[in-house]
Amino acid sequence: MTEYLVTPAAERPAGKPGQCFYCRQAVGAPHAADCVMIVKPVRVRMTIEFERWCPADWDRSMVEFHLGESSWCAANALGEIEEWEERRGETSGSGCLCDVAEFEYLHEAGPARLIEMGVSAGNATPVRAGEPGSAGDGPRAASPASGPQNDAESGSKRPTTHGASSGWWQSSR
């Protein structure tokens, strides 16, 4: 199993200096296997019910044709859902889609990786047990990865959700 060394990026202002805020391992030591900074991509299906506008004379088959077989792009639904949620929030005060959305786990979508302070997997330093740099061998310097070093450089526009401060959960599609 791959181990990931704790770097200073795993420290948090509310935590003890020199250790990962989440698994409490010292900088230079491997993160605990159950540390929340070690993540994996999973594929999920989201089903959401929402209201949208269509011509008054359209029946079910016309709506389904327009949305599924015409040149209309499904990405347009994101803006429609956002607008609908805003209209709904004005009347309900909710501002939340939890009552109209369902999620289903489908499968794992790739290998686990380390995310420290928004650092992507390319920047993480994987260490296999027993290799130089593994537990008890002292700190190991991270090697630079090729390509974008962070979301800003890659141009990624990751969505946010209430309660989430980073996009580590985004699909690796």
* Integer average pLDDT: 73
Radius of gyration (CA) equals 22 Å
CA-based shape: elongated
The biggest beta sheet is recorded as:
2 strands, antiparallel
Strand order of the largest sheet: 1-6
Q: How many H/I helical runs?
A: 3
What is the total number of structural domains?
Answer: 2
Q: What is the CA-CA span between the terminal residues? A: 24 Å
Structural class: alpha+beta
SSE ordering: EEEHHEEEH
Strand content: 5-15%
Topology:
Blueprint: E1 2-4, E2 38-39, E3 42-48, H1 60-68, H2 76-92, E4 101-108, E5 113-114, E6 126-128, H3 151-154
Antiparallel strand pairs: 1-6, 2-5, 3-4
Describe this structure in words.
This protein is of the alpha+beta class and 173 residues long. The protein folds into two domains: 1-41 and 110-173, no CATH class; 46-108, no CATH class. Helix content is 17%, strand content 14%. The strands form three sheets. It has a two-stranded antiparallel ribbon. Strands 2-5 form a two-stranded antiparallel ribbon. The protein has a two-stranded antiparallel ribbon with strand order 3-4. It starts with a strand and ends in a 19-residue tail after the last helix.
